[in-house]
Write a structure and sequence with these properties.
The chain is an alpha+beta fold and 299 residues long. It is built from four helices and eleven strands. A hairpin with a 6-residue loop joins strand 8 and strand 9.
């Protein structure tokens, strides 16, 4: 029963260490299509997306955060033609269970809140074109080129800041994961030591039992051969003496077994607490990542 408990604790430690290994949604395509009255941004992944959205101003932007997702073969920047969308930025931050794939759409003009729809594994972001947009684009102001260059520089600085923050979070997540793996390894070692001690105790108990049986067999043989009288008495006394010694040995073995059982219980309790501590730390890390994402959204 203790063996099963030790194995269960070791399995719990391994599960805690592997909890971060989540099957991610792999985003393999981000495309922009002009469909006349509206522009559609399609985000195609490998599973139905779990996402949040928020809008930003100055310049007008719309952000989609896909949780437990990562990009694969998707360019960092998309600069479609048509005038409504200036650039689409594809950014990644976090890792494993906290990995987030962010699609940030920067507009050239103010637009109505986009219509976001999920179709299977694809996320469709539909942006209606403002009325009179083509007329406004046909007659730009004399300083429009300079203003656009300044705005692009400001956007690039903001994107660089977001990327730096994402890299910092990724490093923190990697350090936390390394600590969790080290603690899981310590828990596995403790479980292995406890199992080895239990196996040694069982071997010792079997050896003592075999010695006791041999002593009993020898005493019986001596009693049968010795005959009557003094020989019988002597054999009886020897048998009693051996029985006393055997009782002492059994008592000693029992105490040793109880001591080892207590040490094993302590090791198992320590492993359980360590597993619970790891689970709490992982929960805190996930909560921290979620709050930071919400804080960025508010900003």
């Amino acid at each position: 029963m203790r063996l099963r408990l030790a194995l269960a604790l070791a399995a719990t430690a391994l599960a805690s260490a592997a909890r971060a290994q989540v099957e991610l949604n792999v985003v393999s395509a981000v495309e922009v299509r002009d469909e006349g009255a509206e522009v559609v941004v399609s985000i195609r992944g490998t599973k139905p997306p779990n996402f949040t959205t928020f809008s930003m101003a100055d310049p007008p932007r719309f952000v989609i955060d896909l949780s437990e997702s990562r990009f694969q073969g998707v360019p960092d920047d998309l600069a479609p033609r048509g005038g409504l969308i200036e650039v689409v930025k594809n950014l990644s931050y976090g890792s494993d269970a906290t990995s987030i794939a962010r699609v940030m759409i920067a507009f050239t003009v103010e637009v109505d809140p986009p219509d976001v729809q999920t179709v299977g594994e694809t996320l469709l972001v539909k942006i209606a074109k403002p009325a009179g947009m083509a007329v406004a684009a046909a007659a730009p102001a004399p300083d429009a080129g300079r203003a656009r260059a300044d705005e692009e520089a400001r956007k690039q600085a903001e994107i660089a800041a977001l990327q730096a923050e994402a890299e910092r979070k990724s490093r923190e997540d990697a350090e936390m994961r390394a600590q969790q793996e080290a603690r899981a390894a310590t828990a596995r070692e403790a479980a292995a030591v406890a199992a080895a001690g239990r196996e040694e105790q069982e071997k010792r108990a079997r050896a003592e039992e075999e010695a006791r049986r041999q002593a009993e067999a020898e005493a019986t043989a001596r009693a049968e051969v010795a005959g009557q009288g003094k020989a019988d008495e002597k054999a009886r006394r020897e048998a009693e003496e051996q029985a006393k010694e055997l009782a002492k040995a059994e008592e000693k073995a029992r105490r040793e077994a109880e001591k080892q059982a207590k040490e094993l219980a302590k090791a198992e309790e320590k492993a359980r607490r360590e597993a619970e501590k790891q689970a709490k730390e992982l929960a805190k890390a996930e909560e921290k990542a979620r709050r930071e994402a919400e804080e960025q959204a508010k900003e």
